[in-house]
Amino acid sequence: MAEKKRIILHVDMDHFFTAIEEREHPEYRGKPVIVGADPKEGKGRGVVSTCNYEARKYGVRSGMPISKAWKLCQHAIYLPVNYELYTRVSERIMAILRKYADKFESWGIDEAFLDVTSKVKDYAEAEALARQIKREIIEKEGLTCSIGIGPNKLIAKIASDYQKPDGLTVVREEEAEKFLAPLPVRKLLWVGRKTEQKLRAMGIKTIGDLARRDPTVLTETFGVMGTQLYLMAHGIDKSEVEEQRQIKSISRDITFEEDTSDFNLVLNTLERLAEEVHKDLTGQQLYFKTVTLRVRYENFETHTHSKTLPFITNRLQDLKKTAKELIQDYLKPERKIRLVGVRVSNFVSAEKQKPLVITS
After folding, report:
1. Is 298 a catalytic residue?
2. Is residue 354 included in any domain, yes or no?
3. How far out from the chain centre does Cα 25 lie?
4. Residue 20 in contact with residue 253, Cβ under 8 Å?
5. pLDDT at 360
6. Average pLDDT for runs of 10 along the chain of length 360
7. DSSP string for residues in 271-340
8. Which of 102, 154, 257, 350 has a beta carbon 3.0–4.6 Å from 64's, enabling a disulfide?
9. The domain that contains 271 carries what CATH number?
10. Is there a single domain that holds both residue 223 and residue 135?
11. Could you tell me if 160 and 146 are in contact, meaning their C-beta atoms sit under 8 angstroms apart?
12. CB–CB of 342/252 below 8 Å?
């Protein structure tokens, strides 16, 4: 008997942080709302974390320097990141999603994959299930989400972005290549601005263009990534939906809207990411020993650098100090940074062990 073909859902909450803020403050609705750093009348450091669709009409985007957002939309409502609130809402939403899936995989605070292969007999039932999920989230949380349904994680994720906000897109296995073909190559996972530029120089603008290319040429140009690009262009993705049952790390990263050599911006953004990680850490009553920095340059060269402390701690100043120490070797005037991130790991639960108390 042939193995039943997979049906995967990708659920993506719509402009999650700002949607929660609008729910908490109905007077914000219909106005541009930007969550991130303090703009300080155009002189602020840091980046936009999330913005709603009204703000996007003015050209504001996630990862954009907050000073640039201010120039584009001074009359927006600017709010700090309330990570404690967003995490509580996320936990409730993930609990709703988990019960619908055979296998469940959260992707950050506002996205998740659901393998529903044994829950439904076909795509029609999968669509009905997705509508039920959307109804339950809006009834219980007052928030909308967009859902993509496909034969694998790649297709489901691209489909969830196809009709935002509050969208539902179904792509059956036999429709996958036709669905992907007209989309820009940037829609593929892991294709950023630099890879897109390289592909465009080869005359490849759409995923269909990529699918028609000789895989040997792609491998010569991009190495192992070339093979992966070719497979993705044909809608092939065999990765499993995998649940992490035990928290092994907590991380945050952000891709800047434009590659930057403004190291004050990078350092301020790293500080804000550390604050978000710290809120999550303390909310789960965890202490850490290891801090890992992640840096990606404009050419997509990516570095990670870790430091294990000689003591366990949950202090924000320890996290910030270590992250700033780790990034120093990567702040090079001749190299622009595309992404920065921070991760903590090597956990000890507060319930199991008392931390080393350090007074300052």
Report:
1. no
2. no
3. 25
4. no
5. 31
6. 82 96 96 91 84 96 91 95 88 94 88 95 97 98 98 96 95 96 90 85 95 93 88 93 76 89 92 90 84 91 90 89 94 92 83 39
7. HHHHHHHHHHHHHTTEEEEEEEEEEEETT--EEEEEEEEEEEE--HHHHHHHHHHHHGGG--TT--EEEE
8. 257
9. 3.30.1490.100
10. no
11. yes
12. yes
Residue 275 tokens, joined? 């604050």
Amino acid (1-letter code) at residue 210:
L
Q: CA 31, CA 29: separation in Å to the nearest integer?
A: 5
Asked if residue 360 belongs to a domain, the reply is no
Q: Which of 54, 111, 141, 298 is catalytic?
A: 111
Say which amino acid occupies 56.
R
Domain extent, residue 84, equals: 1-176
On whether residue 143 sits in a domain, the answer given is yes
For residue 350, the model assigns a pLDDT of: 55
Model confidence, pTM = 0.74
User: Would you give the end-to-end CA distance of the chain in angstroms?
Assistant: 67
Residue 340 is predicted with a pLDDT of: 95
If you ran DSSP here, which 8-state letter would residue 5 be given? P
170, β-bridge pairs: 149
